[in-house]
Amino acid sequence: MIILENFKMPNVDLDAVMQHLKDTGKRTHQLWLDDETLAFVARGREYRSEFHINPSYEIQYSLKGFQDLMYRTPEGEVKVAHVPEGSVLYQPPFVPHSPRFAPDAFQFIIERVRKPGEIDKFHWFCPQCDHLLHEETFFVDDYRKDPVSRAYDNFFNSLEFRTCKKCGTVAPGRDGS
Predict the structure, then answer these.
(1) Which domains does the chain have, with CATH numbers?
(2) Of 113, 112, 78, whose CA–CA distance to 92 is shortest?
(3) What percent of the chain has pLDDT over 90?
(4) What is the C-alpha separation between 125 and 1, in angstroms, rounded?
(5) What's the half-sphere exposure (Cβ side, CA atoms, 13 Å) at 156?
(6) What does the angle CA 97 – CA 31 – CA 58 come to, to the nearest 5 degrees?
(7) Which residues pair with 28 in a beta bridge?
(8) Pfam family example for this protein (predicted)?
(9) Mean of the pLDDT values across residues 74-87?
């Protein structure tokens, strides 16, 4: 028999978490983080335009509404995995993906905690010619630090990052212009 000190079993009221995110306007709420697992609820990803490359698997459950998970094949082709409410999707590590769902939709996500030296990447592509515009990298150790928003701030705040070096197209800014 194994005896665990300070043993906790998180029992989370997901309806209350979704209401908290609505009330506060926040986009994510971390549920737990231990040596092996990171779990959080995310609200609305309608603004996403980048492809996230995560060294961990992701398990994504559609709590409310649906998600269209855009992803890139090894050949660079963009495809869509539709995840209806009540469905769960397993995403293997290193798949470039871009979760898209409405502001009133919610996802429950479980990931493996990053190992030392593992880095998450965020890639933006030219909307005209699909050339890689910019890459942001982060060590994702805690979703309360909101690495996605930090990556977006860096991208949107730089005209240089949003300008295609191949065709000269400027990707839209935060406000769509």
Answers:
(1) 25-162 (2.60.120.10)
(2) 112
(3) 72
(4) 53
(5) 16
(6) 25
(7) 42
(8) 3-HAO
(9) 96
User: How many other C-beta atoms are found inside a 10 Å radius of the C-beta of residue 46?
Assistant: 11
What pTM does this model have? Answer: 0.86
Amino acid 58: pLDDT: 96
- HEC secondary structure over the chain: CCCCCCCCCCCCCHHHHHHHHHHHCCCEEEEEECCCEEEEEEECCCCCCCEEECCCCEEEEEEECCEEEEEECCCCCEEEEEECCCCEEEECCCCCEEEECCCCCEEEEEEECCCCCCCEEEEEECCCCCCEEEEEEECCCCHHHCHHHHHHHHHHCCHHHHECCCCCCECCCCCCC
Rounded Cα distance between 18 and 28, Å, is: 9
- Using a 10 angstrom Cβ sphere, with 0-12 exposed, 13-18 middle and 19 or more buried, the burial of residue 136 is buried
The order of strands in the sheet holding 120-125 is: 78-83, 67-72, 97-100, 51-53, 120-125, 132-138
118 vs 139, higher pLDDT: 118
